[in-house]
Amino acid sequence: MGDNRQPIGVIGTGYVGLVTAAGFAHLGSDVFCIDIDADKVARLKAGEIPIYEPGLEEMVQANRERLHFSTQIADALEHARLLFVAVGTPPTYSGDADLSAVRAVVDAIPASDRHALVMKSTVPAGTGASIKRVLAESGKQSLSYVSCPEFLKEGSAVKDFLDPDRVVIGDEGDWAGDAVVELYAPLDAPLVRTDIASAEMVKLASNAFLATKISFINEIANVCEETGSDVIEVARGMGLDDRIGPKFLQAGIGFGGSCFPKDVNALKQLAGNSGYHFQLLNAVIEVNELQKRRVIGKLQKHLGSLVGRTVCLLGLAFKPNTDDMREASSLVLSARLQADGAKVRVYDPIAEEEARQLIRGVHFATDALDAVQGADAVVLVTEWDEFAQLDWRQVADLMAGTLVLDGRNALDADAVRAAGLTYEGIGRGALTAIA
Ligand code: UDX
Fold this sequence. Notes:
Elements (H helix, E strand, L loop, with lengths): L7 E4 L3 H12 L4 E4 L3 H8 L10 H7 L4 E4 L2 H7 L2 E4 L14 H9 L7 E4 L7 H11 L6 E4 L9 H6 L4 E4 L4 H10 L6 E4 L1 H32 L3 H9 L20 H14 L5 H25 L6 E5 L14 H11 L3 E5 L4 H5 L6 E2 L3 H5 L4 E4 L4 H4 L3 H7 L4 E4 L6 H6 L3 E3 L4 H6 L1
Parallel strand pairs: 1-2, 1-4, 2-3, 4-5, 5-6, 7-8, 9-10, 9-12, 10-11, 12-13, 13-14
Helix pairs in contact: 1-3, 9-11, 9-12, 11-12, 12-13
This protein binds uridine-5'-diphosphate-xylopyranose (UDX).
């Protein structure tokens, strides 16, 4: 890629920070990555990637000479004018976003008319204005500020960086906004250049809308079970309407991850703090919580009491192609099953190490066939490709019972049935009626 690209700083080397850093290095910038975690910085310097993200390791390796890692913000300030902020903004007990890591960065940057903070972390609308106020109060008003929300999805983050649906840049029309526009220019993506508060809201509203779409189709799925309809057919028919679109209409056992649950709650809270009751989002959150728990009812419908029953969970990560366990449906399921007296066997091809820190009292199996051994029921929790390839006759031989609960509608129902097993999906009333 081109020479003479401007160097940048990236503060925070989590999913968003590291992908952003590797992406801009790939586009030709020298990137100075800063993290307060000295151990992580040491690992990154040694070429170790602390997260599982397809294509990221290769991209980091290929651009090693342009990627610099340090614990000192001064290293970034010395070389770069734009400082991308990609630190965590986890939820607090109140449901508001915890902005302490963002504030620490703001405090650590000295007064300068040569530098700009470019906010990548998801923050409540209005954060830019309050940061600008803090900067003014501490005599640092010459620092520029740009909101540049990130829309990448875990599991396809590298591809999403290189081929984004849009780039959103909120700024005050100064040099920093122009510089960020220039940085993204090679990607040739649709650009939305707007004010800071609107850019912040684009991110929150987009995630809230997508989460609403999922809770909506999950409720349609639940009704399909009563009406003898198949939600897959229903979603196909709905999705062909241009105004609806086919994406994010996969019914399942709820959304998780580091963004949707947190951002939906943060938007609800943000609205509430200013006196507006965002009724729709309450329902989106509640439907999602109930959706995870419906699995227990389905198991009881087939097995009766779960005391002493063995239930196998296939997949633990909140979605395939990631080792991220944050807000994964498996966390609720494994705990609920154990509380109801079931023995739980689990397997995930990638997320086991993360899962071991969060899930107790279950048996971690070495592979899918090991996991299904002696199970009265198998629940597909995360739709890793390898589970769709399972030999269901072999599975049937190893199980003690016959129930396969497809929590993501990702399995071939006919193949499962042909092996003599009982198939139940989510919202597949038509299939259940035939069975
Ligand atoms: C999401 C947004 O898509 C991304 O733009 C934002 O930057 C961060 O949050 P991510 O959390 O990586 O990305 O996951 P995503 O692929 O969007 O899936 C989120 C959850 O929704 C997963 O648990 C997934 O299983 C679930 N989901 C998704 C459904 O249940 N049905 C669907 O149709 C789509």
